[in-house]
Amino acid sequence: MNGALRLTVLGAGYLGITHAACMASLGFGVLGVDTDGSKVGKLNAGRLPIYEPGLAELLRAGLGAGRLRFTTSYAEAAAFGDVHFICTGTPQQAGSDRADTSQVDACVATLAPLLRRPCLVVGKSTVPVGTARRLAAGLGHACPGAELAWNPEFLREGTAVADTLSPDRIVAGVTSGRAEAILRQVYARPVAGGTPFIVTSLETAELSKAAANAFLATKISFINAMAEVCEVAGGDVRALARILGADPRIGPSFLRAGLGFGGGCLPKDIRAFAARASELGAGQALAFLREVDAINLRRRVRTADLALELAGGSLAEVPVCALGAAFKPGSDDVRDSPALDVAQILTGMGARVTIHDPAALRGARRARPELAYARTLAGAARGAHVVLLLTEWPAFAALTPGDLSPLVARRNIIDARGALDPVPWQQHGWRYRALGMAEDAAAAMRAATG
Ligand code: UGA
């Protein structure tokens, strides 16, 4: 059945590559399209331009089976596809909170005049509500047999393959039974496996993605707001999160307090959502998202202030070790990375910061060439007066005082992701500071455990 339906995936970014490789693994013939010829060449040679567990294997399996290939030609895509998935990026507009939909617009504008037969164009990119209705009008005008649907993607970096093959839900924003039937055919496998298939309007489909990311960001900022209160009131946000998370109405996920959210999605999506609501006259309804953003960004400044405190009031020429560059563990993505922002703030305060990350050094060097990097953890930690754990990679979370004590010049550590147990560090003479925990609360933990 799958062999009968041919798919194109427009845009070979994170989402596009994952979607293309996963759909090929489900048995569809897939043509990936990107205007970047060198990226297309690499993908056709089986080389991934991103770090994502399990994806390279799927890419190579699809290429090897002849079910997957990449091209720069939209004409080829128009002739090939029964279903065209739009997977281009929607970054934040320069100088504004709004989303830049120019890549999505260009994708449809290029494809539409080339379409010669009935097909379904399916948007997966995260767009401001109203975009799909606007694109549908233009598409129907250019090619009467072409129809538009919106099918947002909820995958997370680091678990993108599993999230695509077994999603929590599939949202089908459609305007006809025919579009719904085609999407049901595309997603027959996960739906048979129990994934809910929710049929809705184009607008609700667009909103569902923005609302989901807004909720996740709000949950993180909520616990980080509690962290701020814990810091001044002598509480411990980790224990607080455990207590809150035990209530099934709240749930434990996305309650990890710390340096907050970054990446190519949550920060720009909450800004774009609030900006779009304002355009529509509902700005007040999402005004709280500005506060969610502000709480999140404050954590970066607070982390730098803790380093200043541990350095004794001045960071001028102080050697600092920053562990982490990626916006989260399991990813090499440094877009809006809280870790890199902290390194930048500390550098601005005069510190000599050296950054180590197990996967994101190349991207970090490209994004912030002015910062200093070390290929090994020891290289970053040697001689440091302050160590900061900024991205909770398993290798960093497993660090013990025995690993770092022989390397550093002074025993000061900031656990900005709440990944370490304070007690052994304090027992080995380290000053341990964490977000969401006053210094005396950490000392009290030590006293309580003897
Ligand atoms: C996020 C959403 O989780 C996906 O559902 C969505 O599809 C995706 O954005 C997108 O719009 O494409 P992702 O950006 O890959 O996925 O990363 P998350 O796992 O959501 O983490 C986002 C940030 O929040 C990271 O910086 C992480 O360190 C931080 N975080 C997460 C916390 O600070 N605390 C938590 O409890 C959880």
What does this structure look like?
This protein is an alpha/beta fold and 450 residues long. It is 46% helix and 13% strand. It has 20 helices and 14 strands. Helix 1 (14-25) crosses helix 3 (55-64), helix 10 (202-233) crosses helix 12 and helix 10 runs parallel beside helix 13 (288-310). The chain is elongated and about 70 Å long. Uridine-5'-diphosphate-glucuronic acid is lined by residues 126, 153-157, 213, 216, 220, 254-256, 258, 260-263, 265-266, 269, 327-328.
CA-based shape: elongated
Number of helices: 20
Q: What compounds sit in this structure?
A: uridine-5'-diphosphate-glucuronic acid
Task: Give the strand order, joined by hyphens, for the main sheet.
Answer: 3-2-1-4-5-6
What ranges have pLDDT less than 50 throughout 5 or more consecutive residues? none
Query: What structural category arises from helix and sheet content?
Result: alpha/beta
Tally of strands: 14
Calculate Rg over CA atoms: 24 Å
Largest sheet: 6 strands, parallel
Distance between termini? Answer: 65 Å
Whole-number mean pLDDT:
96
State the share of residues found in helices, binned by percent. 40-55%
Percent of residues in beta strands? 5-15%
